[in-house]
From TrEMBL:
It holds the Pfam family RDD. It is found in: Cell membrane. It comes from the Bacteria. It is a multi-pass membrane protein. Its main location: membrane. The chain crosses the membrane at residues 26-45, 76-96. The keyword Heme does not apply. Keywords: Cell membrane, Membrane, Transmembrane, Transmembrane helix. InterPro entries: Pra-immunoreactive, RDD. This is RDD domain-containing protein. Residues 10-108 form the RDD domain.
Length: 115
């Protein structure tokens, strides 16, 4: 949404066509994989909400954790299962005591309040 608003002021029209296609998807996965490693578990939205990603041993996430979490757990697995794993993961987050989804189990991560 912020990018669409910025483009509105630059182009004079509101459009979300910039997010169509694989280039946006690849960039977004890179953002979700690299930024938490550089920013100690945060992406912009998580920082605003006061939550962050941690390893199950309590340490900061690594590239390996984030590749497993985002590329394999949130990308490949969802694609291969035609979205069913995403629904299972959502149910897991809602009902399991540790609130970890499939992507967290695969990546060896969990989300914690940082405030």
């Amino acid at each position: 949404m912020p990018i669409s608003i910025l483009l509105y002021f630059i182009q004079g029209e509101f459009s979300t066509e910039w997010s169509d296609g694989y280039l946006w998807d690849i960039g977004y996965v890179i953002y979700l994989t690299v930024l938490p490693v550089l920013w100690k578990g945060y992406v912009i939205g998580k920082r605003l909400m006061g939550i962050k990603i941690k390893r199950t041993d309590g340490g900061d996430v690594t590239f390996a954790n984030m590749i497993l979490r985002e590329v394999i757990g949130n990308g490949l697995l969802v694609f291969v299962t035609l979205g069913i794993s995403l629904l299972i993961s959502a149910v897991m987050v809602l009902v399991m005591e540790d609130r970890r989804g499939l992507h967290d189990l695969i990546g060896g991560t969990y989300v914690v309040y940082s405030r």
